[in-house]
Amino acid sequence: MEVQLIQNQIFIVRGHRVMLDAHLAHLYEVETRALKQAVKRNPTRFPTDFMFGLTESEVEHLVSQTVIPSKSYLGGALPYAFTEQGVAMLSSVLRSAKAIEVNIAIIRAFVVLRQHLADYKELREQILVLEQNMSTKFSDIYQALDYLLAPKNQRRSIGFNPPTDDNDGNEPEV
């Protein structure tokens, strides 16, 4: 099972990375109704930090973000959203070889996603440090570039000023 396919079905809802019941049912090769029934038969295995039902407005948001094609895609019922722990718990209520295979692939996808997020966070921190160092170390270069980019009539003269017709070189310029 391709990890990238699974990663594309992991969304952020209420600050949690989740997968929707319809996507999970497709991966497990069961009907969404059967997946929901298995969960309802085992409510103590699915506390709210493992699985929660989406609200109408959350479904609207998912449709507007093209996460799901339309509300009808969900079959008329509001979907369940499963966190990584909820997905892991599904293997205990869906007892098939396919469920075990899919769960392993999904857990691996969550791990890869978590690693990517950690890498991005570290990269972002390194960029901030570089920006801070560059702005202090290269302030002279920034000033010179500003000077060179300014229109000639707005530049103040720096360095040696050669004599002009008005100045014979004996009197200092002011």
Largest sheet: 4 strands, antiparallel
Using the alpha-carbon principal axes, give the shape: elongated
Beta-strand proportion: 5-15%
Total DSSP helices: 7
Ends: how far apart?
Answer: 79 Å
Using only C-alpha atoms, the radius of gyration works out to 31 Å
Which range best describes the helical content: under 10%, 10-25%, 25-40%, 40-55%, 55-70% or over 70%? 40-55%
What series of H and E elements makes up the topology? HEEHHEHEHHH
Structural class: alpha+beta
Characterization of the model:
There is one protein chain. The protein has helices at 3-7, 21-28, 32-40, 56-64, 84-93, 97-137, 139-149, and strands spanning 11-13, 16-20, 51-53, 80-82. The model has no long low-confidence stretch (mean pLDDT 78). It contains seven helices and four strands; from the N terminus they run H-E-E-H-H-E-H-E-H-H-H. Helix 2 crosses helix 3. The protein has a four-stranded antiparallel beta sheet. The protein is an alpha+beta fold and 174 residues long.
Write the layout of secondary structure elements.
Blueprint: H1 3-7, E1 11-13, E2 16-20, H2 21-28, H3 32-40, E3 51-53, H4 56-64, E4 80-82, H5 84-93, H6 97-137, H7 139-149
Antiparallel strand pairs: 1-2, 2-4, 3-4
Helix pairs in contact: 2-3, 5-6
Notable characteristics:
single chain, 174 residues, alpha+beta, four-stranded antiparallel sheet, 7 helices, 4 strands
